[in-house]
User: What shape does this take?
Amino acid sequence: MIKQVLAWVDNRTGLGRFTEAFLFQNIPGGSRWRYVWGTLLLYMFLLQAITGFFLWTAYSPSTQTAWESIHYVQHEMVGGWILRGLHHFGAQAFVVVLVLHLLQMVIYGVYRAPREVNFWLVLGLLPLAIAMSATGWLLPYDQHGFWASRVPIGIMGVTPVLGPWLQKVAMGGSSFGHHTLTHFLALHAGLLPLCVALVIGAHYYLTRKHGFADVSKDCACPDEKYFPAQFLKDAAACLAVFIVLLAFVVVPALQHPNLAPGVHLGAPADPSEQYSAARPEWFMLFLFQFLKYFPGGTEVWGAMVIPGFIGTIVALMPFVAKWKHGHRFNVLFIGTLLLAAITLGRIAVNEDNKDETYLTAKAQAVVAGERIRQLTTERGIPPSGAAALLRDDPYTQGPKLFAKNCASCHRFDGHDGTGHHPLTTWTVRQGETWETVAEFRFMKPEQLRDLNKDLSTRALKTGDNLTVPVRPWAPDLKGFGSREWIAGLLDPAQVDGAHYYGGTKFKDGKMSKWVKKNATPEKAEDLKKVIAALSAEAKLKSQIGADKADAELIKQGRALMTGDLACTDCHSFGKKDPDATAPDLTAYGSRGWITRFISNPSHPDFYGKRNDRMQSFADKQILDAKQIGLLADWLRGEWYVPPKSVAK
Amino acid sequence: MQKNPAAPAAASPPAARRDFLKQGCAACLGLAAVGTPAAIGTRVFLDPLTRQTTAESFVKVTTLDTLPEDGTPVQYPVLADRRDAWTKFSQVPIGAVFLQRQSKDKLLALSVVCPHAGCFVDYEEDKQSFLCPCHNSLFLKDGGLKDQDSPSPRPLDTLEVQVRNRNEVWVRFQDFQLGIKEKKPVA
Ligand code: FES
Assistant: This one.
């Protein structure tokens, strides 16, 4: 019965004969491991097609949904991170297999007649694979993809005559937008895979048509049929590659069980947000490095003319091989190319590993990626997209705002908010020594010498250029309003130091004097109460527990402030005192207090006319209300913290 | 019929002509059937080429007071209303600029986009210059090319800048074509 059906199908379609010819093709000299490449290439493509298809079913190409949908795949959908990981590494494996296959064809001379076309097909896959990967970068629409894609598109623009047009067509407009994503998706998931499939199909067909490569006559190996002998080898090779890829995805996840698993998904793309770690995929690094050697205006040579020329030479290899030493030349040439590419790639990696900007950007990208995951996982993403969430997040924006607006005078735990210790160059003046320069910058002479190793062994001369930290002109605001911070302020040893008034004009002011006179060890108990009371005004999230527990202490502290310790001689506290000359202590360190202070420190409630150098950030429109709010929240440690399950 | 030895000599030319006509027609019809939808599709696809982008007008970026007196360049995001295909965004970041004082109230606005291939340049305080993190183009503080071997074909692009109402800094935000010697705005 079954036989009959099969016979019928064969009769009507010819499928049976075809399968037979295909599956049971004779392999002269038997199966070989080195025949697996063609199948492996086909398999890599299938793997990409399968994983790609399923990613596609969950992907939404638009600037407000691309990142968001991939985020959802990666962090919410079951197995999503494995799927994306396989697709990610599969793309790289495709290129690796392709290059190895090409190499093998050249080394074994498999490009000779009648296999020239077959060789060209494999060669033609190379630009296709690069185009696939270049269009694929952008699709997740994270910072990395966004910035890395700009470079190839920028390079496209130098194509003679057509450049700007090409660019515009590729981007679907004059800048990145919805249509860039829809175009890239159509290329990445439609046109390009179709081309690749046709080329691979043709390659596979031709391989079979010309039969497997000839075996040396003296080999006494018996012939075998494709199925099962070669098929077994092919299948084993494919499975081995797949297991390696799977390991690439899964092993890191097992090694770091407390991180979100899967290939890194950066923060959502934001055109106003700098990203200094944009790099192409590793297998394109050589080209990236190559481009560095072409001074302005000659880029066409590096990006198009030379690669095109080299490609042509490779394509001509089948003919070159006909000359006397032609084949040797080919092998040498392709070997040199590969070596050059590896060397260039390594130079690029080495340069990056020494490059501070790149490394910090990379580290920050990891932090931002993790932060956005925390922000979105529990609470979901608003329709306007995830980028807005980061823009409204004190934890993300606070350090940047601080570094830009505050760090020219203030520090945050000694740095500028982002972990950077600002340095500058100081030209030594008449009479300055290591000691005086160091003292002015609140550091020890040894530390200064460490910063200037080349000069450190001799005395300073006028005109020497020293690398020095920027002098803090105002207090360090880490923990502002907390008990520790206030305790430091009320410490005679610290009040006129770098962390508090040392750099300000209040260094020898009334507050300093008061602390030095009154903050004696005998008064330690009273001071402790005052510290608790004043700090409670801030209502800091980190101190909720302590404030509650010490209610009694705080009550006594408040009494001391208006009574024995006489803070209210100069400050307002509790009620407005029109004669107050120092900042209002009511709600000191609270969100309202800080925002009002940043808005206008010269307000009579604060420093009034005695204000040192601090700008009125709101009145002068340096910052808007939202930015000031972000700064205040960040200083107070108020930002969204995900519940434990998400934070893991 | 064809086997008739007498017929071919007489019937051949018109038959050949008829055949040629037939072939021609077949090709034309086929081309029209496939080509027309393809042409319509291509026209839609090329829509961005012919779409007039509204000329970028001046955008308020910041205020004069935020700029350091010592002329250090500071980077500002540029927010503006933007139309992206079907979506109308209001006040979204469309890019960034470096602003610096050249004298008390003379400002210089530089695009952050490296004219080489479009990366975002950094200002390096200690070297007093701009460095592109991608292929290491180096620019002077005023945007000029620092050394002729930089991959960038031209200095950083200056943007028109105005001070309005005594304190507001407005910048005409534009993109320029990358990779070429002249500074040409992207149409
Ligand atoms: S993009 Fe700036 S140097 Fe290449």
Remarks:
- Residues B 114, 116-119, 132, 134-135, 137, 151-152 surround FE2/S2 (inorganic) cluster (CB under 6 Å).
- Strands of chain A lie at 26-27, 224-225, 423-427, 465-469.
- Chain A touches chain B through 57 residues (CB under 8 Å).
